[in-house]
Specification:
With 227 residues, the protein is mainly beta. The protein has a single domain, classed as YmcC-like fold, CATH 2.40.360. It has 2 helices and 14 strands. The longest helix is centred in the first third of the chain and has 19 residues. The protein starts with a helix and ends with a strand.
C-alpha cells in the first residue's frame, strides 16, 4: 500500500517538477509587448505587437499561444500571425515561423500550407560561451496552379555575454546571443547575422541584423510592456 502511494506521488509530482524547471523566454498570459522596427538608417518602418493570448500546462510541457501583429501605419498592409512556443524540461522551444518576414509571408496567406520544422531551443541555464542547437523550417505553399517552397535555417548560435541593456521599455539584464539566419522564398535567398538580447520571463528586448560585410541591415527595440 505504502509503495503504491509513493508511486502515485511520483506520477503526479514528477511532470509538474519537470515543467517547473523550465525558464520561459516569454511573459505571462495577457502581456502585450510592442516593438519598433528600424531600417539601416535608423528610420522606423513598422511596429510589431506580440501578445501571449493563452498558456496551457499539459503533462509534457507548457504551451504559449502568441498572436503577432506587424503594422506599417497603413491598415491594409498589416500582417498577423499566430505562433506556438513551449517550455519542456529545461528547454524553451521557439516557433521557427517567427523568424520569417511577415510581409513576404502575406503574399501566400491564401495558399494551402504544409510545415515541417525543427524549432530553435534555448536552455534555462544559459552561460556565456555556450553554443546553441540549430533550427530549421520547411514550408510548402500550394497556390493553384503553382507550388512555392520556403525554408529558414538558424545556425552557429552562441551566447556571447550576459549584460545590462537599455531600450525604451526599460533596463534589463539580458543574454546576448549571436547567430546566423538564412531564408529562401521561392528563388530569393536572404542570409544575415542576427544578434538578440534575451531576458528570462520576457523574451527578446532588442535585435540587430547585419549582412556578410558586417553592415547593419536594421534593428528592433522593445518600446512598451502592457499587462
Amino acid at each position: 500500500m505504502f509503495k503504491s502511494i509513493i508511486t502515485l506521488l511520483i506520477i503526479i509530482v514528477l511532470p509538474a517538477f519537470v515543467i517547473a524547471q523550465c525558464t520561459a523566454y516569454l511573459p505571462e498570459q495577457g502581456t502585450k509587448l510592442t516593438y519598433a522596427n528600424y531600417d539601416k538608417k535608423g528610420k522606423q518602418t513598422s511596429t510589431t505587437t506580440t501578445e501571449v493570448t493563452s498558456v496551457e500546462t499539459k503533462a509534457d510541457a507548457v504551451y504559449y499561444h502568441v498572436h503577432q501583429l506587424v503594422s506599417t501605419g497603413k491598415k491594409k498592409n498589416d500582417t498577423e500571425n499566430d505562433l506556438l512556443f513551449k517550455c519542456k524540461g529545461n528547454t524553451f522551444y521557439i516557433d521557427m515561423q517567427s523568424v520569417l518576414n511577415s510581409e513576404q509571408m502575406a503574399a501566400y496567406e491564401d495558399g494551402t500550407i504544409t510545415v515541417t520544422s525543427n524549432n530553435m531551443t534555448i536552455p534555462g541555464d544559459l552561460k556565456p560561451g555556450m553554443e546553441l542547437p540549430d533550427g530549421d523550417l520547411g514550408m510548402t505553399v500550394f497556390m493553384d496552379p503553382m507550388t512555392v517552397t520556403i525554408t529558414a535555417r538558424a545556425f552557429y548560435r552562441k551566447v556571447e555575454s550576459k549584460e545590462e541593456i537599455t531600450v525604451p521599455a526599460g533596463t534589463f539584464t539580458a543574454y546576448k546571443i549571436k547567430g546566423y539566419m538564412e531564408t529562401k522564398f521561392a528563388f530569393m535567398r536572404f542570409a544575415y547575422k542576427l544578434i538578440e538580447w534575451y531576458v528570462p520571463g520576457l523574451g527578446v528586448v532588442k535585435s540587430e541584423s547585419y549582412d556578410n560585410k558586417n553592415r547593419k541591415l536594421g534593428y528592433t527595440e522593445l518600446i512598451k510592456i502592457e499587462k
